[in-house]
């Protein structure tokens, strides 16, 4: 019984490491580096990055990664963090959209006049001056 339990735990540990989140570098634009000990190493296309790898993208740089499921993650310029954190942040950004309906009826348009300082000053120019006694 103990051997079966140890074997089950061993298989679980191996499965976790075998299916860990790894990302493959699809494209690199500009200066993109990963931390390796106390140094920074330039990231190249085709390289596999662990989800715990800390990466740095410089100004004007970007990095495109794909995970095991084929999901594409784009890391924009001037970012620092682990691949997993940057992938989460990247997935929350959505660019684009559509307008379902725009109300252009007369009731929805306002023609309120906003006064400006120059308009108020020109109104005040016609006021009577009060003589001091």
Strand order of the largest sheet: 4-1-6-7
Work out the radius of gyration.
31 Å
Question: Which structural category do the helix and sheet elements fall into?
Answer: alpha+beta
Helix content: 25-40%
Low-confidence parts, pLDDT < 50 over ≥5 residues?
Answer: none
Mean pLDDT, rounded to whole units? 75
Description:
- The protein has 133 residues and is α+β, with helices and mostly antiparallel strands.
- It has a domain at 21-91.
- Helices cover 26% and strands 28% of the residues.
- The longest helix has 17 residues, at 2-18.
Give the topology, please.
Elements: H1 2-18, E1 22-29, E2 32-36, E3 39-42, E4 48-50, E5 54-57, E6 62-66, E7 72-75, E8 79-82, H2 83-91, H3 117-124
Antiparallel strand pairs: 1-4, 1-6, 2-3, 2-5, 5-8, 6-7
In short:
The protein is an alpha+beta fold and 133 residues long. It has helices spanning 2-18, 83-91, 117-124, and strands at 22-29, 32-36, 39-42, 48-50, 54-57, 62-66, 72-75, 79-82. Helix content is 26%, strand content 28%.
What descriptive keywords fit this protein?
133 residues, alpha+beta, four-stranded antiparallel sheet, 3 helices, 8 strands, elongated
């Amino acid at each position: 019984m103990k051997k079966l339990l140890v074997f089950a735990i061993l298989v679980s540990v191996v499965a976790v490491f075998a299916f860990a989140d790894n990302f493959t570098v699809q494209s690199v634009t500009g200066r993109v580096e990963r931390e390796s000990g106390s140094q920074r190493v330039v990231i190249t296309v085709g390289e596999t990055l662990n989800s715990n790898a800390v990466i740095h993208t410089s100004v004007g740089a970007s990095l495109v990664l794909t995970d095991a499921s084929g999901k594409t993650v784009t890391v924009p310029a001037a970012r620092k963090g682990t691949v997993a954190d940057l992938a989460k942040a990247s997935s929350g950004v959505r660019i684009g959209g559509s307008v379902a309906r725009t109300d252009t009826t007369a009731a929805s348009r306002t023609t309120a006049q906003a006064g400006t300082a120059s308009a108020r000053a020109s109104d005040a120019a016609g006021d009577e001056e009060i003589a001091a006694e």
